[in-house]
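Field log, afternoon session.

UNIT: design team B
ACTIVITY: writing a sequence onto a fixed backbone
BACKBONE:
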């Protein structure tokens, strides 16, 4: 973003308010990009220059450095810092990285919260399924016990019926033997009376 009518310190302050720094031209590509921007706003600029983030340090030796990093660069086209001009702000690499990091942290926190919520939902579903499974298993056990009792009752009834059949069979055999004796007696009696 570019603005006009500020001293270097005012420009730096305006950028700081936006959590940015005055632009620092460290590459040829950035120089060309900034040159295109200046050409676009040349009417607003009225031929004035734009402040950058470079400063002149005098101690221990006079150097020209970028304000945000202290990195040295070669001097060109310096103006009095109290004169009014335009400026261009940019995010510092550190601020940009911190912002990107914060965005990633927030994304990760959001993902973690979503995962925790899903985990809680899955745990609740799993608990419900376990309880349902236990309830069904209890019902199956009760049904199995009832079926076992029925089978025991049927076995006892079958045993009782087998005993009754044996008793009836024994009674039948006894009756047949008695009838055979009676028949024999009757034949002997007839043969003796005859």
């Amino acid at each position: 973003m570019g603005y006009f009518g500020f001293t270097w310190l005012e420009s730096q302050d305006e950028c700081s308010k936006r959590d940015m720094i005055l632009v620092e031209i460290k590459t040829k590509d950035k120089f060309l990009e900034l040159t295109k921007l200046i050409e676009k706003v040349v009417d607003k600029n009225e031929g004035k220059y734009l402040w950058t983030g470079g400063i002149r340090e005098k101690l221990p030796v006079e150097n020209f450095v970028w304000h945000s990093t202290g990195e040295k660069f070669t001097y060109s086209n310096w103006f009095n810092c109290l004169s009014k001009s335009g400026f261009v702000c940019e995010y510092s690499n550190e601020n940009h990285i911190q912002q990107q990091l914060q965005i990633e942290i927030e994304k990760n926190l959001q993902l973690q919260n979503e995962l925790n919520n899903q985990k809680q939902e899955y745990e609740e579903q799993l608990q419900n399924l376990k309880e349902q499974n236990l309830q069904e298993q209890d019902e199956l056990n009760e049904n199995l016990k009832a079926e076992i009792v029925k089978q025991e009752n049927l076995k006892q009834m079958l045993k009782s019926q087998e005993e009754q059949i044996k008793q009836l069979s024994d009674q039948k055999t006894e009756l047949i033997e008695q009838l055979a004796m009676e028949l024999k007696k009757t034949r002997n009696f007839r043969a003796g009376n005859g």
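LOG NOTE: The chain has a mean pLDDT of 85.
NEXT ACTIVITY: expression trials, pending approval
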